[in-house]
Design goal:
Oligomer: single chain
Number of helices: 8
Largest sheet: 5 strands, parallel
Organism: Niabella digestorum
Radius of gyration: 19 Å
Strand content: 15-25%
Distance between the termini: 33 Å
Mean pLDDT: 84
Structural class: alpha/beta
Protein name: Response regulator transcription factor
Keywords: DNA-binding, Phosphoprotein, Two-component regulatory system
Amino acid sequence: MDTKGHKILIADDELDILEILSYNLAKEGYEVITASNGDEAIDKAMKHRPSLIILDMMMPKKNGVQVCQILRAQEQFKDTLIMFLTALNDELTQIRGLETGADDYVSKPISPKVLLSRVAALLRRVQKEVSSKIIKVANITIDPERFIVLVDDREVVLAKKEFELLYLLALKPGRVFLRNEILSAVWGNDVIVGDRTIDVHIRKIRQKLELDCITTVKGVGYKFEI
């Protein structure tokens, strides 16, 4: 799978584990952010908006369960992948972690190769779910299987990149997508395009939909809202 564009936050108070995991994940092409306690994990999650958060259960300031609960209570992290990586492997602790809202629970020690496979599997699962999801927001319907957009009952024909860009933004209404996120998700990191390319596509989408449903956040990116 394409790992570029995926940010992973690892929170653990054991520095050797942070170093080993960071090295192996970065080697696979992930962008890695680290934190050594619960408060730092929350701050960095808010700042970087990672695709996946890997939490140690036992950390100073706030433990993994507390961090998970705090993040899950916020709208922007309701769909973010969260994995516990911990030496606590008893059944009750695992159940507690999953009931808190974690997507996976992995026991230490674990080989880097096995962890990488678990990470990739989680990200693939979400991408598969997203790829077939029909979006309905207000009077707009976006169908990725049939590659069509309906505004009320009017079918709107979009070019492939225009469709992919609209679909990306509409997946999470109200969320601001950074320019580099958009470039990575729609054009990929192997294609060199400028910021102006996004602006042109946004303008064409607005014109074709005859709706001002994409808001420009100056100097940051774009968000979908009606």
